[in-house]
Amino acid sequence: MTDRRAALPVAVAVVGLAGSLAVTLTLYGLALKTLDRVLTERLQAAGESSAALMAHPDLPLNQQFLTDVMRANALEAAYVVDSRLRVVADAAGNSGRRVDLLRVDPARLHEALLGRSSVAPGYAIDSVQVLTGYFPLARPPASQGQVLVLEAGEPFVASRAQIRRARDLGAVLSVLCGLGLALIARRSSRAERRATEAAARAARGEALSRVAAMAAHEIRNPLGVIRGTIDLMRERSVQSLSDRDGRALDDIVQEVERLHRLTQDLLDLGSDRPLALTDVSLQAVLADSARALAASHPSIRVNIESNLAELPALPGDPARLRQVFANLLANAAQAQGQGEIVVRAAREGGEVRVEVQDRGPGIPSEESGRIFDLYFTTKSTGTGLGLGVARRFVEQHGGRLAHLTDRKPGAVFEVRLPLRRNQPPPKRGDST
């Protein structure tokens, strides 16, 4: 019996380690899968837009043009091949030679000569898998017989290495935390073991938050590169982008924005920085949050029923309050898909009360008690962070975030913020 009791904390530590590793690997897999899709679509868009530009007979097909294409998209190589497997033009200046069959996929080249473009992993340089694209050219006077070949090497896919480093760091931290918890639990007495188990649960939660924040920090940098590249492509190809290409870029931007929101929630979850207090105008905060939602959810309209100009300023951190209302509006938009979200605000005594109401299916009573728990979600694409992070920020301001269970239709969330900083935080509750 004693051995079993001694082994129980060790088993708990092992389970915590497995959970931390599972979350780390899940985040890694999600980020890598999304990044691969974005990189593939980015090279596809670059190749198709470049091929479309090269179709113009007045545009010279020379080394300089291909060099510009290569540099603009951080590519390893860019060249044009004809049906005789000879290089017609090359950014490296090696035109007139036969193609290197160790670098070219003959089957995909043949498909491109028949008019079908493709993007897929090609050859490897050391441990870097080069992404290659084959795009047919329709350049007068010839209507076929030439293919634009783009090779994306280490600069193009550098963000994959950053994500792998974040995964390795997260795994090492998870292992170290698990070993530390197991050692402490093994050496503790029964009374100490109970205290250690409580500390271990808190430590695992903190470690998970920190690992998630580290992974999110590593992911956010390549997301900025991807978004900047998309904006550059839009600017350079605004006249030549087809509707299909435009929709593809829109899809990429939506995925990037979704990952950006996820990484922001993860960073906020692992952040312990104090509030940057100043006098905050709720009118400006709600207006900014509504504009951000309109950009990410065009089918949603935010209807602010109150006169926000009448509300007094309150002490708070504007960035974190914007995150609170951005999370609540995003949660409402995901619940209803389209239509109108209603926002109401009023002063009540020494507080400002703000309600956010959607027209979705509402929250079942058996789940209403868990909606603020971190990582609890009922959505297939949810993370379970938005409401938990929002409640944490509201309580840091001495306020309260609650789900009003007696209001229909849809779900209603109420934020109460004190007008004076010295007010103690109210007790949590599900409704008022």
Q: Nutshell version of this structure?
A:
Helix content is 51%, strand content 17%. With 432 residues, the protein is α+β, with helices and mostly antiparallel strands. The chain folds into 2 domains: 1-272, PAS domain (Beta-Lactamase); 278-418, Histidine kinase-like ATPase, C-terminal domain (Heat Shock Protein 90), CATH 3.30.565.
Keywords:
Heat Shock Protein 90; alpha+beta; about 50% helix; about 425 residues; Beta-Lactamase; five-stranded antiparallel beta sheet
Description:
By secondary structure, the protein is an alpha+beta fold. The protein folds into 2 domains: 1-272, PAS domain (Beta-Lactamase, 2-Layer Sandwich); 278-418, Heat Shock Protein 90, CATH 3.30.565. Helices cover 51% and strands 17% of the residues. The protein contains 9 helices and 12 strands. The strands form 3 sheets. Strands 2-1-5-4-3 form a 5-stranded antiparallel beta sheet. Strands 7-9-10-12-11 form a 5-stranded mixed beta sheet. It has a two-stranded antiparallel sheet with strand order 6-8. A hairpin with an 8-residue loop joins strand 4 (128-137) and strand 5. The longest helix is centred in the N-terminal third of the chain and has 53 residues, at 2-54. The radius of gyration is 27 Å and the shape is globular.
